[in-house]
Write a structure and sequence with these properties.
single chain, mainly alpha, two-stranded antiparallel sheet, 20 helices
């Protein structure tokens, strides 16, 4: 580490102790932000379908991400970045509001209460106990499963993998050419595939900032294609310009339409409790899964599979959830894309702080960040997915009572499109297989694992 390392950063983030430096952390923070910037466009789009003001949701998304990430940096000193959760925002809008018919104000109240419950659980060690109760083989499996999951998301974002009669299939370039859409959608698929190879090449050559460079190079190729006519933008059809749009200036959208708009009138009703439980379950195990997976990839777990300073991480996540509800957005949680920064060498809260600062700047430079196309960030997700599945070599495949539950956990995440489902099925299968084979007598399986297995089984029966 350089002797010119700023003393206050060293004291605040313990860079030397974590074998990192300012340059590495800054690059990691930029990379994480770039892979997450899509949330600034996607979250307002999803929540606006529930009747919320998209401009206010954009501002709420930025502030919730910035505030939650700074809490993570200062309370836990981990390189984890937070933002309104993908999945939970869709549940918020399409299930709770549109299908079940509740107001978005009531849904925000459920998110706020969920955050308060998580704060209490974090302070009383319940969430930490759950984290520590999960066997090390399942922790490695979670990392692998998340790797496959985010790679799948990346392939979908780039339209390399598309819906079909066989559930999913490879994008058809012939069909695209026949339909006359190659210069819109087809070329972006080509660019994403090239971007994956470029990012893989940079990673293989150990180029510093290879994932960030992969994003920028892929985006740059898109701009060149637009300038040369290979890509023809059509915003109305969902194919926006590759270049930032500054026509509306740098005005910050008002937060007033969503700020403090929570409706607590139905708090004591059964319907509210059902909605609250759904938010609680998915958020708890998505967060635990993300922390396990990313921490495992970064070798942040100790020899017993425990994570130092996890209470601060969980508390930050819980506080961010309630903060987001106050501002006017769905559940804010730790993002799996944090793994992209970890892959760049990020190891401390300085990575998170850099991402938080960039989220803050995005309020003023939103046209730039909203212009980052999904096909440009897709290669980053695919390559990070590769890096995360390397944890599979740490699973003992000679012991089927460890390996089979790990396998079930791994395949459930991408196939069921849910980190939490992978964890729940992994825990159920681990307990059942070890009970059936009698291996539970020689293993120190936590009582909490048995309780969780029963609760997950009841969830599948009753919900």
């Amino acid at each position: 580490m350089s002797k010119t390392q700023p003393n206050f950063l060293e004291k605040l983030f313990h860079l030397r102790e974590n074998h990192t430096d300012v340059k590495t952390e800054v690059l990691a923070g930029i990379t994480t932000f770039m892979t997450m910037a899509y949330i600034l466009a996607v979250n307002p789009s999803i929540l606006s379908s529930a009747g919320m003001d998209s401009g206010a949701v954009f501002t709420a998304t930025v502030l919730a991400a910035m505030g939650g990430t700074l809490l993570m940096a200062l309370f836990a000193n981990y390189p984890f970045v937070l933002a309104p959760s993908m999945g939970l925002n869709a549940y918020f809008a399409y299930t709770v509001v549109i299908r079940m018919g509740y107001s978005w104000e009531m849904a925000l109240a459920a998110v706020f209460v969920e955050g308060l419950i998580f704060i209490a659980l974090s302070l009383t060690n319940v969430r930490e106990a759950i984290f520590n109760a999960i066997p090390i083989s399942l922790k490695h499996a979670v990392s692998v499963g998340i790797g496959l999951f985010i790679a799948f998301i990346g392939l979908q974002n780039a339209n390399i993998v598309v819906d079909s009669s066989t559930l999913v299939s490879l994008y058809s370039f012939k069909a695209s050419a026949d339909a006359g859409t190659f210069t819109q959608e087809g070329i972006t698929v080509v660019l994403a595939l090239i971007g994956i190879l470029v990012t893989a090449f940079l990673a293989a050559k150990k180029v510093k900032g290879n994932i960030l460079w992969g994003i920028l190079i892929t985006w740059g190729m898109g701009m060149i294609c637009q300038l040369t006519g290979l890509y023809r933008p059509d915003a109305a059809a969902g194919f926006p310009s590759m270049f930032p749009d500054f026509s509306n200036g740098f005005a910050i959208p008002s937060l007033a339409p969503t700020f403090m708009k929570m409706d607590f009138s139905k708090v004591l009703t059964l319907d509210f409790i059902v909605v609250l439980f759904a938010f609680l379950f998915v958020d708890m195990f998505d967060t635990l899964g993300t922390l396990i997976g990313v921490a495992s990839r970064a070798d942040m777990l100790d020899k017993d599979g425990k994570m130092p300073r996890i209470r601060g991480a969980l508390l930050s996540d819980a506080m961010a959830t309630s903060l987001g509800a106050v501002l006017g957005t769905s559940t804010t949680t730790t993002f799996v894309e944090s793994s992209s920064g970890v892959a760049e060498g990020g190891r401390t809260g300085l990575t998170a702080a850099v991402s938080a600062i960039l989220f803050g700047l995005s309020l003023f430079l939103s046209p730039i960040f909203l212009a980052i196309p999904s096909f440009a960030t897709a290669p980053a997700l695919v390559i990070v997915g590769f890096l995360m599945i390397t944890s599979i070599v740490k699973i003992d495949f000679a012991d089927y009572t460890e390996a089979v539950p790990a396998y079930i956990c791994i395949i459930a995440m991408p196939f069921m499109y849910s980190i939490s489902e992978g964890i729940s099925l992994g825990i159920i299968s681990y307990v059942v297989i070890n009970l059936a084979t009698g291996k539970f007598r020689t293993k120190k399986i936590s009582v909490l694992m048995y309780i969780l297995a029963v609760l997950f089984i009841l969830k599948y029966i009753l919900i």
